[in-house]
Backbone:
């Protein structure tokens, strides 16, 4: 009887705390569209580890780098409120064919994120119309972040760092470091990033 009463009290306490936690999460939503926040940040010294729930192939998730906020965008082509967009393994920047924010990126192959402290001279690229493969998606400037294993269908992040200039003109270095959650489900992009001298 005592054990049953303790469990009941524990459940009541947990349910009461869950309501409070839900309120806090709603407050931290930062204007995300229905469905709540899909972006979570963890500080790692001067770096930020951002996890994006990009599992819904029918929905883009939009991030403003300066505020670290998930933003709700009706028309990404007519908005400068976002810097990066995420849908499954696709990452768009607000520039070129993806938006009118003027964003560009430099691709640094085989580079450590810690070694990048300022924006390089170039070459700067942006999201472009589809080229050689003639698929539906644009040629995203950040498209080369992964290697694909045709046998296992697993995406593995490459040692590539991207330096992007945000819509506001500030420079950030970023690297995709994961694509799966702890259960092995895909579409959970993990990006480590930091501001750098521009």
Residues:
């Amino acid at each position: 009887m005592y054990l049953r009463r303790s469990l009941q009290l524990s459940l009541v306490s947990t349910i009461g705390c869950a309501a409070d936690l839900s309120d806090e999460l709603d407050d931290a939503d930062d204007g995300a569209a229905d469905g709540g926040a899909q972006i979570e940040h963890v500080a790692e010294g001067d770096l930020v580890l951002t996890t994006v729930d990009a599992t819904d192939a029918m929905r883009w998730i939009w991030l403003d780098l300066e505020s670290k906020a998930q933003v709700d965008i009706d028309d990404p082509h007519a908005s400068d409120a976002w810097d990066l967009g995420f849908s499954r393994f696709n990452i768009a920047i607000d520039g070129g064919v993806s938006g009118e924010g003027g964003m560009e990126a430099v691709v640094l192959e085989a580079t450590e994120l810690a070694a990048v402290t300022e924006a390089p001279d170039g070459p700067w690229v942006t999201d472009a119309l589809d080229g050689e493969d003639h698929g539906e998606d644009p040629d995203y400037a950040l498209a080369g972040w992964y290697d694909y294993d045709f046998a296992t269908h697993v995406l593995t992040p490459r040692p590539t760092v991207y330096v992007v200039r945000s819509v506001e003109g500030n420079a950030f270095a970023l690297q995709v470091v994961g694509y799966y959650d702890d259960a092995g489900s895909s579409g959970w992009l993990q990006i480590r990033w930091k501001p750098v001298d521009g």
User: Anything to note?
Assistant: The two ends are 66 Å apart (CA to CA). Residues 176 and 191 are 4 Å apart (CA to CA).
